[in-house]
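Q: Could you fold this chain for me?
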Amino acid sequence: MDDFLKSIEKKIVKLSFKQQVLFAVLTCEKLLPNYREFSSIVRWGSIEVLEEAIVMIYQYLQDIELDDTELDGIYEKIIEITPNIENFESDLASYALDTCSAISDAIEFLLSEDQSYVLNIASIARDTVDMFIQESIYSEILPDDSEAKIAENEYMKKEYRRQHDILRKLLGAEITLPFISTMRELNNSSGSIIELSLVI
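A: Sure. Below is the predicted structure, expressed as structure tokens.
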């Protein structure tokens, strides 16, 4: 495990289950525009399925009971609309795959309460930004010190800050509807996780 994930894990383990769920769904929401753009351009998939999954997770946080059958059902729907990147020429397919992976992990987390899924969601968001930096900024020619340069890139630094800021605010917080709304506003205030116009 790299230093970034170790630092995230140290904060995640201090959170309650509901706090961890909120961190997970906020991170999934940052990835959602990537799938929306992919689906719109290639005319495949269903952003509505992913939006339904996000709504279900927020319902859970508001103590609206979800049974395993409902969660299993939305999980299966996500699998059906997850792109096989070999079937698409669009570079956006990989970003759409990441989005589906993160949201399906969030559903798995509700079912299992296994913290590794939350850490994996944090990692997927970071990897999405890493892929964007490599493909849009460095293209196919990576500098010798590419890892250091990627870590210092503004998009990566912004994602690091977003995750750590949210984790800090979650610690000790009561998960109420006003708090959820505040956290969603904070999450959105950092802007897009990647610049889609540079990918298309």
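A (continued): The chain has one domain: 3-198.
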